[in-house]
């Protein structure tokens, strides 16, 4: 059997981690893997998370299965953070998933079950796993150019054209905030135009909201998602707590579905549970229990919000430092989230690693949380040496 398999290419980011670890140069800078790092270069366990884990250690009295739906109190407590206080009229249902990737995959399979001929519109560049997730669910992915990396501008006319030419019922994958990999978000005016196109052409938004609170703040980062859901009558939202709670290895997420009619909510819920059952059976408990415990406690919630604000300020401070170090990088301060994406070749990325100890993905994606403000000069010098800047 297994001799019939073909070798798959190794994950490039995993190779990047190993290469960085093996590099013995003191001045090396890791702009690779997309995790938050503090001023000491660590990815710390948040204080609120530690407090919640201590509470669970002392009070949790069982490790029994949660059921396919997961921790529904966790799912409910996230709703006001994501959606505010909308009047969904019983048209919104959620389910716990293993991270945002699990939410995306479950949503993809739900779409496939509802209408196998549905096309998924995906603006590129995007997170490398987006297209494979939908393709693995046997959905057709239709890509269109979203950003011109050379000018670091949204190609909004391309977005309008893609949505205007889509068929009724097609799904549009949208990054809710802190676009991965570019850091380039739509303006609110552009979001309003997208909402109009979704309504006019009867398209279904699938919003990937993985970095809420790491762009500007929780409320501002949720504003586009809330506006879209107020405009349309059907939607999916994949949510991740991995980044804004620092729970990367716990894989904590949720999928929310908004149906056109309240009478359809039971169908959506039963299908989500059935699909979850054959994918992961029961989701892991610990990460969701941590988030639930934090959100149930006013004190822990306040600590978490304060920590998240500190993280957001640090990332934006790094952006400001790098933008100030070179006029050609001014665009970085206007972008949001962990990432920016330079318009460079694979060969240039390799040269930056080999000659200067500057580690970033071959695509030019940089994790700005991986640097310190004092690193800005070294990064700019390396980019100038390789002809990336004037």
Measured by DSSP, the beta-strand proportion falls in 5-15%
What integer is the average pLDDT? 95
| SSE succession | HEHHEHEHEEEHEHEHEEHHHEHEEH
Q: Give the CATH architecture of the largest domain.
A: 3-Layer(aba) Sandwich
Main pleated-sheet profile: 7 strands, mixed
Distance between the termini: 55 Å
Detailed description of the structure:
This protein is of the alpha/beta class and 390 residues long. It folds into two domains: 10-44 and 312-385, Aspartate Aminotransferase, domain 1; 65-296, Type I PLP-dependent aspartate aminotransferase-like (Major domain) (Aspartate Aminotransferase, domain 2, 3-Layer(aba) Sandwich), CATH 3.40.640.10. 44% of the residues lie in helices and 15% in strands. The chain is built from 13 helices and 13 strands. The chain has a seven-stranded mixed beta sheet with strand order 2-10-9-8-7-3-4, sandwiched between helices. A two-stranded parallel sheet has the order 1-12. Strands 5-6 form a two-stranded antiparallel ribbon. Strand 3, helix 5 and strand 4 form a beta-alpha-beta unit. The protein is globular. It starts with 11 loop residues before the first helix and ends in a 5-residue tail after the last helix. The model has no long low-confidence stretch (mean pLDDT 95).
């Amino acid at each position: 059997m297994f001799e019939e398999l073909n070798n798959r290419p190794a994950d490039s980011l995993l190779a990047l981690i190993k290469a960085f670890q093996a590099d013995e140069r003191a001045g090396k800078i890791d702009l690779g893997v997309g995790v938050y790092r503090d001023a000491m270069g660590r990815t710390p366990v948040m204080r609120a998370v530690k407090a919640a884990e201590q509470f669970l250690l002392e009070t949790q009295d069982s490790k029994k299965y949660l059921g396919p739906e997961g921790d529904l109190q966790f799912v409910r407590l996230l709703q006001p953070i994501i959606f505010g206080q909308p009047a969904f009229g019983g048209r919104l249902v959620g389910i716990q998933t293993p991270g945002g990737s699990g939410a995306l995959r479950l949503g993809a399979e739900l779409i496939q079950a509802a209408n196998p001929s549905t096309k998924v519109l995906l603006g590129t560049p995007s997170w490398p796993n987006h297209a494979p997730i939908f393709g693995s669910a046997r959905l057709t992915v239709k890509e269109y150019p979203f950003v011109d990396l050379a000018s670091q501008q949204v190609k909004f006319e391309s977005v309008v054209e893609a949505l205007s030419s889509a068929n009724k019922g097609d799904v549009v994958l949208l990054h809710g905030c802190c676009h991965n990999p570019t850091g380039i978000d739509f303006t609110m005016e552009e979001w309003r135009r997208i909402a109009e196109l979704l309504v006019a052409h009867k398209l279904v938004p699938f919003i990937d909201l993985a970095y809420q609170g790491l762009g500007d703040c929780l409320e501002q980062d949720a504003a586009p998602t809330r506006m879209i859901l107020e405009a349309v009558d059907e939607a999916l939202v994949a949510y991740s707590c991995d980044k804004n709670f620092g729970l990367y290895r716990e894989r904590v997420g949720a999928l929310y579905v908004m149906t056109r009619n309240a009478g359809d909510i039971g169908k959506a819920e039963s299908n989500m549970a059935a699909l979850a059952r054959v994918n992961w059976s029961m989701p892991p408990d610990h990460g969701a229990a941590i988030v639930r415990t934090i959100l149930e406690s006013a004190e822990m919630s306040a600590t978490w919000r304060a920590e998240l604000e500190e993280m957001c300020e640090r990332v934006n401070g790094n952006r400001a430092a790098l933008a100030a170090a070179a006029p050609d990088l001014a665009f970085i301060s206007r972008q949001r989230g962990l990432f920016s994406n330079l318009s460079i070749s694979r060969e240039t990325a390799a040269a930056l690693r080999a000659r200067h100890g500057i580690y970033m993905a071959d695509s030019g994606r940089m994790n700005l949380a991986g640097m310190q403000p004092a690193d800005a000069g070294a990064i700019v010098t390396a980019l100038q040496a390789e002809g990336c800047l004037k």
